Amino acid sequence: MSTTVRAQGDELIAERRLSAAPATVWTAFTTPEHLAAFWGGRHATVPVSSVRVDLRPDGEFSLETRAPDGRTSRLRFVYEQIEPPTLLVLREPRTGLSTSIRIEASGDGSMLTVHQRRLPPELRTAEAATGLGGIVDLLAEHLDADPAS
Amino acid sequence: MATALATPDLDAAFAALADPTRRAIVAHLASGEATVGELAAPFTLTHQAISHHVGILRRCGLIEQRVDGRRRPCRLRVEQLEQLTDWIESQRRIWADRLEALDAHLAEVERP
Question: Which of A127, B4, B57, B98 is deepest in the core (most CB within 10 A)?
């Protein structure tokens, strides 16, 4: 099973089917031991002792990632919405970035959908959905068509 | 990463592009430079309103204006726009990698 990730305007949508049941996936996203095991991906490591999970609205979720070259960085989020075992919305106060993690039952496993938005929802319109992607496409066409510029 | 925009600039650039008129201006400039007057033509907006949008795009670094006699054509700063797409791409990689690791982790946990 593989992950599909696409960008729509400034929004990133990642989807993945998992063989685990929603409750198990929910536990993975809300328990320090599990988060430490996967949040850093296959390259960065996350010490379990660095993970803080205060699972309530406005509560903090933070952890430290350690890159292969030894560089560490502390990531800090605030819980915005908590609806077990289906929806978790995190906001990164430093960047204003909002991430929603949706877990739905699918067959005997789960479908996981992550939406990451750069813009606050009130600024989002149907038009914005194709915004940045469309601009970049136009630009690429222009640059291809006119190598002199 | 030395050439990367600082986070506030990236935020300002994304916020600037949240506006449909400013996206249209950027799209127009993607096909070549244009003066404020030329940019205003397709819109029912005043020259002054377009100037205001151009100012916002200029301050967040997405476009620049040069002086050419009495004309002040605007042009897109392609490298800045690319940083936005680079940012999206880096996030894409992070999530693909993270979910890969999650799947592997869950498989390990569930193994009887």
Answer: B57
Q: How many CA atoms lie within 13 A of A38 on its CB side?
A: 23
Chain A contact for B16 (CB, 8 A cutoff): no
Residue B69's contacts (CB-CB under 8 Å, 6 or more residues apart) are none
Angle, to 10 degrees, between the axis of helix B78-110 and the axis of helix A22-30?
120
What crossing angle do the helices spanning B78-110 and A128-145 adopt, rounded to 10°? 120
Domain range spanning residue B63?
7-110
Q: A74 — contact with chain B (CB < 8 Å)? A: no
Complex ipTM above 0.85? no
Q: What pLDDT digit, counting tens, does each position of A35-44 carry?
A: 999 999 888 8
CB contact under 8 A, A143 and B78: yes
Question: Which of A10, A125, A136 shows the shortest C-beta gap to B81?
Answer: A136
For residue A71, what are its two tokens?
Answer: 């560089």
Q: Is B97 on the interface with A (CB under 8 A)?
A: yes
* pTM of the entire predicted model: 0.68
Q: Which residues of B touch A19 (CB under 8 A)?
A: 106-107, 110
Domain containing B100 — which CATH number?
1.10.10.10
Q: Is A76 on the interface with B (CB under 8 A)?
A: no
Give the containing element (helix H, strand E) for A112.
strand A109-117
Domains of chain B: total: 1
State mean pLDDT over A11-38. 90
